[in-house]
Automatic annotation (TrEMBL):
SUPFAM superfamilies named among the record's database cross-references: P-loop containing nucleoside triphosphate hydrolases (SSF52540)
GO terms, molecular function: ATP binding; tRNA dimethylallyltransferase activity
Organism (species): Musa troglodytarum
Record bears the keyword Transferase: yes
TM segment ranges: none
UniProt GO BP: cytokinin biosynthetic process; tRNA modification
Keyword Methyltransferase assigned: no
A Pfam short name: IPPT
Protein name as catalogued: Adenylate isopentenyltransferase
GO cellular component term, pick one: mitochondrion
InterPro entries, per database record: Dimethylallyltransferase (IPR039657), P-loop_NTPase (IPR027417)
Lineage top rank: taxon: Eukaryota
Length: 287
């Protein structure tokens, strides 16, 4: 469900031609915690646009495998650097990606709108979920991706690119799912049930491992002095796992979207009054 839009006339995103910094909100969190949904909610409420900072989702193609937010779920919010690059061109250097993100942020701010960076500093919104609940959610998400056509999508990818096996460490081919399904599509176990089952098990394990690494990196921010305000969305994920849609939506508004919007509003208010303060808001929910 898309949140309704509120006026942002009270807030000014300043151009940095005079040395002042633009207001930027960054939503961080492990995979599967709801960064995409919260980014859209905040961009809707504060007249913003979303900038993707996921180094895999920047490439065009494999939308299911890379878990890109479907256009229908973006609530009309403009998204930047999401599926924009042709993977055939090879892997984008980190410095070039940072430059592209900075350019997108400047462009959004220059139009008087609020840049909301999904996944990447200024005001941080951190989505966090209790570990066991998140692990169960990630396994469920992999199953939903498989049911939604992930394997067929990968089959087309391997069929169209005979060099896919040699490019698994470049750009789009780093996405979780390609290396795991390589044996099923290209190896001695091609087309067999054991290879298929092993690939799905490996995807689940590697996705959980990725989430653990991301949480560790985010918690390092707090250790380095960044103030973290956690928005615990565990109740949202638990309700979704129990297939209680109404409870999940209510918990989202109560525990994540509402507090997250309040944190951004306070951040922008302090910025407009000349007292900028960094906020890190953790949101724990599903993507």
């Amino acid at each position: 469900m898309c949140r309704r839009c509120y006026s942002s006339e009270d807030y000014c995103v300043e151009d940095n031609d005079d040395g002042r910094k633009e207001s930027v909100v960054v939503v961080v969190g492990a995979t599967g915690t709801g960064k995409s949904k919260l980014s859209i909610d905040l961009a809707t409420e504060f007249s913003g646009e979303v900038v993707n900072s996921d180094k895999i989702q920047v490439y065009r193609g494999l939308d299911i495998t890379t878990n890109k937010m479907p256009v229908a779920d973006r609530c009309g919010v403009p998204h930047h650097l999401l599926g924009d690059l042709d993977p055939v061109a090879g892997e984008l250097p980190p410095a070039a990606f940072r430059e592209m993100v900075a350019g997108a942020i400047s462009g959004i701010a220059g139009r008087g709108r609020l840049p909301v960076v999904a996944g990447g500093s200024n005001s941080f919104i951190y989505a966090d979920v209790e570990a066991a609940t998140l692990a169960e959610q990630l396994d469920r998400r992999v199953e939903e991706m498989v049911a939604g056509g992930m394997v067929e999508e990968l089959g087309r990818y391997f069929e169209a690119d005979e060099e896919a096996g040699k490019l698994r460490h470049q750009g789009l081919a780093k996405a979780i799912g390609l290396a795991e399904f390589q044996e099923y599509f290209l190896g001695e176990g091609r087309g067999t049930a054991p290879a298929y089952e092993a690939a799905v098990v490996a995807i689940k394990a590697n996705t959980r491992r990725l989430a653990e690494e991301q949480v560790w990196k985010i918690e390092r921010l707090e250790q380095m002095g960044w103030p973290l305000r956690r928005l615990d969305a565990t109740a949202v994920v638990a309700a979704r796992l129990a297939r209680e849609a109404a409870e999940a939506e209510a918990a989202w508004e109560r525990d994540v979207a509402g507090p997250g919007a309040a944190a951004v509003e306070q951040f922008l208010k302090e910025k407009s009054e000349g007292h900028p303060h960094h906020h890190i808001v953790p949101s724990l929910i599903y993507n």
